[in-house]
Amino acid sequence: MKKIGFLLLMITLMTSGFTQNKVRSVFDDAEFVIEPMNLINTIGSDISPALVQGKLYFSAVPEIYFNKKALERKNKAFYDTYSASLDEIGNISSEREMVPGLGNKYHQGPVSYCTTTGELFVTISNTINPDTIHKMFSAENIRLRLVIMKKTNNEWVLTEELPFNNKKFHFAHPAISQTGDTLIFSSDMEGNNYGKSDLYMSVRTKRKWSDPVNLGNVVNTSGNEMFPTFLPGGLLSFASDGRQGTYGGLDIWYTNFPNPTTVINPGDKINSTLDDFGLIISANRKTGYFASNRSGKGSDDLFMLQINSLYETLNGRVVDDRTGLPIAGSVIQLLDCNGKSIGQTESDSQGNFQVKVLHANCATLEVSKTGYQNTRKSVVGSNYIEIRLKQLDTFLTIKVVDKDTGEDLADSKLEVTKGEFDPSSLTKAESAFRLKLGKESDYIFNVSKAGYFPASVNYSGKDKTPGENALVVTIERVVAGKQFVLENLYYDVNKYNIRPDAEVVLDRLVQVLTENPEIRIELGSHTDCRASSNYNNTLSQNRSNSAVAYLIKKGISAKRLVAKGYGETQLVNTCADGVDCTEAEHQANRRTVIKILGATK
Length: 601
What we know:
Blueprint lengths: L6 E4 L19 E7 L9 E7 L2 E6 L11 H6 L2 E6 L11 E2 L9 E7 L4 E7 L4 H7 L7 E9 L2 E7 L9 E6 L5 E6 L10 E8 L2 E2 L3 E2 L10 E7 L3 E6 L10 E6 L19 E6 L5 E6 L8 E9 L1 E10 L10 E5 L5 E6 L5 E7 L5 E5 L6 E4 L5 E6 L4 E9 L10 E6 L8 E3 L2 E5 L5 E7 L3 E2 L1 E6 L6 E11 L5 E3 L14 H16 L3 E8 L6 H21 L7 E7 L15 H7 L2 E8 L2
Parallel strand pairs: 22-28, 29-36, 38-39
Antiparallel strand pairs: 1-2, 2-21, 3-4, 4-5, 5-6, 7-8, 8-9, 9-10, 11-12, 12-13, 13-14, 13-15, 16-17, 17-18, 19-20, 20-21, 22-25, 23-24, 23-26, 26-27, 29-32, 30-33, 31-32, 33-35, 34-36, 37-40, 38-40
């Protein structure tokens, strides 16, 4: 390519950086600016960029061969390895220079550097004297092999030959993984190739390299696959001239790794109608470098790829509007200009989230969480946003049914004797009551109906989901032979006087007896097993006597009442003498039971 200024290239807009089925890559949602690196390009061939310890390494034909037609074949066959400094942006900031330890008059490059192990993987030729080789053989007879070098006293020194090198074949173009244990390279080995040169993999385990394994026909074709590189985001890039959809010559392609499924061409945003190969991309995904023989300064030139994301990163936090506390697990959806969701994420344990928002004037987030009102908010021009969600009110529906038949009972009554709630919110529809609960409150609900024995129910509003909650209360018809436990009728330890809270329970019993004047009842008091049997018999009898005395005081005829103390003779569980039980288990035995005896005598 003739001297090109800035060429603005745009990838087709897709979705934002949310979780999607398609794996996102550095090629998505970005615009590219390509410019030649003329500070280091020459009239010769400059190829195969690599990032090594903050510098740009590349392979190039030595200047001694320039404009010397007699050495033209050597110009094509032999490269040395050079380096140049980079500034903070990734631009070349120095002229090129030979890499110390390389440049020994035989072919070198491409190279690949592993930051984890400090190793430099290098392609070199199987000869150290190219002049001698050219006198004896044609250029095609010069084979390439792979070696490992390490830096000693600021100079690269060969430390290891790859064990699978073979003078009959080429082993070239190394790409080493970040961990230093997976090597991809190009070779023309016979026997299991799909084409002229294929990509292979070797894995290092306990310092030993495995036999090369062909990457298969998902990657390899009947043509040439060369110049592999690892890209950020788990991608393997390479050059190929054998795939359908090529723009001409060698094209740059990429696929997932280590499980390649689909091989993708980034299109004419990067590729040209000529050869394009050896793409590398910096870890921050803002700059890249590749080689091409498109019109330029020499036969092959190096080009810089500036990567400008079409999305801005937006940080945010979701909090409770009332308390200001973070809300974890809220769903954040990005809406396009038509209000359609194009992806989503969730807030973390601190309520924080991060999304990528398209440079547009209609970016909107919709945030939702169970128990809260959904909220939409425009995020145009913002790089941080706090979203406050309002809690929905917590409601409770109390349904009253007949315990024996399951029938809904209309005309029942509800009294709330404990707990915070909004009295104006209490409504009734047939057999169901509905009220708005207060925050973090415990309740006692008393339900009654003429002809039925009342029920007292303990209910906790703590941790209830905002919105609708339900409670079913069963009550029993008052008929002879029935027995009912008077819930919440408590006495002080070793005492039998009626406490104020017990008066509330006995007042409901007064109501039942008043509504059913024909019945007689027995009030039977029971104790747990602790203390002696005689003591418990006396204590339970006194408690029953106190309850009967209270009812008589309230106007109930003594003829309708029988007081009976059962002591510890009718335990409802196994908590007898000598059995280790919890306080709750002992409490179950300390009860007052109402038995319907029949009609008044």
